[in-house]
C-alpha cells in the first residue's frame, strides 16, 4: 500500500497561496498565545534558580571546540536524508570531512568567540505534518522545521558544554527528567510511584496534580529566557544572537512560500531540536510535589499554587 501523505490536499491552482497561508499561520500562532498572557508574564517573578547551588565564581561561556569535538558531534548525529534550504546533507558532510571539516571548525569557533550565530543558519524550511481533522485547515497541522545541518552542529557544540555546566553545578531541578541523560518519562513515573508507595507505608495521603500548559514553550519570550540564563551564571551573549532574527518558509510538495521573519516567540521545532527544548524547560521549570498527613490544609496550599501558576 502507498504511504499515506502528510501533505495537505488542495486545488493545484492554489498551491502557492496555501503555502503562504500556512507560513502566516505558523509564524503567528505562537505570538497570539504569547500576547494573551503577556501581561501576566510581565508581572511575574521568574526567579526560580536555587541560588544556594550556584558558585558565583563559576560562569558559563561557550568555548572553542577542537577537531576531535567536531568529528564526534557529526559522528553522533542521527542519520537523516532531510536537508535545509542549503541542500547540504549529513551524508555529504561525512563523505567530504577531510576537505570541509577544517573550514566548518573555523566558522563554528568564530561564532562561539564573537557571540554571533550565522544568519543563514537561522532560516528554516517548515513542513506541515497533519495531526487530524480537515486537511485544508492550517490549525490541524503541526510545523516541523528543516534547518541547515551546519546549524545543528553548532547548536550541539554549545549544547554539550551547557549541559555539562548545568549538571556539574547541580543547577537543574532533581525533579526534571526531560531531556537529560539517563532520565526519561519512565524514570519520572518510577519516582512518583516510589514516593506514593512510601507515603502509603507512612499512612500519608499523596496528591498528584497534572498540568497541561497550552503552547507552553511559545509563551516564553527570549528576554525571560535570557534573564534565566544570566541568573544561572550563564553568559547570554551568544544565546541572544541564537534566539533572534530567525526566518522561515513553508514547503508543500515542491511549492515554497515566501520567506518571512519570525516573531521572537516562534521557535523552529525540528525532530532533533532538543537544545531549544532544554533551554525552554530550564526557563519554565515548575514543580508541585506534596505528600501529606493532613488533607484539607494541603489542598488549600495546592490550590494556591495552581492559582499562582495561572498568574505567572
TrEMBL record:
Keyword Lyase (UniProt): no
Family matches, as SUPFAM superfamilies: DNA/RNA polymerases
Pfam families: RVT_1
Membrane-crossing segments per the record: 279-307
The Reverse transcriptase domain, residue ranges: 133-251
Keywords attached to this entry: Membrane, Transmembrane, Transmembrane helix
Record protein name field: Reverse transcriptase domain-containing protein
Organism name: Rotaria magnacalcarata
Amino acid at each position: 500500500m502507498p504511504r499515506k501523505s502528510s501533505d495537505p490536499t488542495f486545488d493545484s491552482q492554489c498551491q502557492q497561496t496555501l503555502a503562504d497561508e500556512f507560513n502566516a499561520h505558523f509564524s503567528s500562532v505562537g505570538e497570539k498565545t504569547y500576547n494573551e498572557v503577556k501581561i501576566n508574564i510581565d508581572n511575574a517573578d521568574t526567579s526560580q534558580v536555587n541560588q544556594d547551588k550556584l558558585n558565583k565564581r563559576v560562569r558559563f561561556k561557550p568555548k572553542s571546540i577542537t577537531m576531535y569535538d567536531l568529528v564526534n558531534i557529526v559522528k553522533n548525529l542521527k542519520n537523516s536524508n532531510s536537508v535545509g534550504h542549503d541542500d547540504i546533507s549529513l551524508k555529504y558532510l561525512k563523505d567530504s570531512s577531510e576537505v570541509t571539516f577544517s573550514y566548518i571548525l573555523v566558522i563554528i569557533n568564530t561564532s562561539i568567540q564573537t557571540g554571533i550565530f550565522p544568519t543563514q543558519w537561522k532560516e528554516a524550511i517548515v513542513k506541515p505534518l497533519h495531526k487530524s481533522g480537515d486537511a485544508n485547515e492550517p490549525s490541524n497541522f503541526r510545523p516541523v522545521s528543516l534547518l541547515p545541518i551546519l546549524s545543528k552542529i553548532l547548536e550541539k557544540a554549545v549544547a554539550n558544554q551547557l549541559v555539562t555546566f548545568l549538571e556539574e553545578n547541580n543547577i537543574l531541578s532533581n525533579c526534571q527528567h526531560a531531556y537529560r541523560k539517563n532520565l526519561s518519562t519512565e524514570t519520572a513515573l518510577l519516582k512518583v510511584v516510589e514516593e506514593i508507595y512510601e507515603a502509603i507505608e507512612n499512612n500519608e495521603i499523596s496528591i498528584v496534580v497534572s498540568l497541561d500548559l497550552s503552547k507552553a514553550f511559545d509563551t516564553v519570550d527570549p528576554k525571560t529566557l535570557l534573564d534565566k540564563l544570566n541568573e544561572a551564571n550563564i553568559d547570554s551573549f551568544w544565546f541572544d544572537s541564537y534566539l533572534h532574527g530567525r526566518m522561515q518558509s513553508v514547503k508543500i510538495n515542491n511549492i515554497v512560500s515566501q520567506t518571512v521573519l519570525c516573531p521572537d516567540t516562534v521557535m523552529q521545532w525540528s525532530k532533533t531540536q532538543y537544545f531549544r527544548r532544554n533551554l525552554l524547560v530550564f526557563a519554565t521549570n515548575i514543580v508541585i510535589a506534596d505528600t501529606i498527613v493532613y488533607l484539607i490544609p494541603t489542598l488549600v496550599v495546592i490550590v494556591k499554587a495552581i492559582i499562582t501558576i495561572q498568574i505567572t
